[in-house]
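Protocol step 4 of 6: structure prediction from sequence.
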Amino acid sequence: MRTDLCDRLGIEHPMVAFTPSEHVAAAVSRAGGLGVLGCVRFNDAAELDAVLDWMDRNTGDRPYGVDVVMPSTVPTEGSDVDLAAMVPQQHRDFVRRTLDRLGVPELPAGQETGDAVLGWLHSVARSHVDVALRHPVALIANALGSPPPDVIGRAHERGVQVAALAGKAEHARRHVEQGVDLVVAQGHEAGGHTGEIATMVLVPEIVDAVGDRAPVLAAGGIGSGRQIAAALALGASGAWMGSYWLATREYAQTTGGSAMQRALVAAGSDDTVRTRIYTGKPARLLKTRWTEAWSEPDAPEPLPMPLQNILVSEAHQRISAAEDPEVVSMPVGQVVGRMNAVRGVEELMGELLREADDTLARLGRLR
């Protein structure tokens, strides 16, 4: 199963895996796909540089990529805006009351919370790009639209492809006009930041809009070889998968905790909710007691990005440390209903490829 995407990225199979885990990304690349490491969790360039050094040593000389979060409207370094001061006290009080009611303990005394919002800032995303371009990355993807022209230009100077996510055909057209090489058509079913249009409708719309100028990757709800074959039938050059890798042993190597994976394995495809509570932009999350609290009558409206990030930053760290599967705060798509056991990346890749090949062969026999 090869498409033009394989030749463009130097991979064996037209499968791209977005993940915040370097262990998952490296395993996918070794298996012939393209592992794309999410950089938003890295607050400083040195930490990311060390992880990319590890990727260089552990991908078996196979290509890999990185994903940055580069919002264009967030104040950068040098701004006089005190973002924390813009968070209303009533929002802080609601978060405190909710954590107490859900039984989420305080972080241990002396444990540094860090500033988890840093990775969402434009200036930090630029430092992620600086680090990535010092490594042999094959792709830089931006989760929040087209990167700035200078970032695209720098990537192209080093022979690095640039991708951007799109939830509408008009977004895809704008990406290509600005120099983006690959468009990820991410449907409503997807985890994390996602739009209103379902994958089945969105992919052919974007292929019709830009497919003659840039390969299109289908994203949202893909968790089987049949769905990869369906993406190709819709005109996509490959599949972009994120949520599916959360329930892997390699992901657990990065996170250490098991509560999130227990929650994912127990969830069905109707156990997600699209909400602004995670970052301030609409994002699909696992439905838990934490997300339900934000839909209650006394809950305030979520703040815009990055103020919502600042508001819930420590809450997310406390929730993660609590290891309670009923309270976790985790972006995941509707494909969670297919994630019924914790398995290895190599096993999943093999299963996906076999089913995709079988499906394509079956379709080829139809008359």
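Step 5 (inspection) to follow. The radius of gyration is 20 Å.
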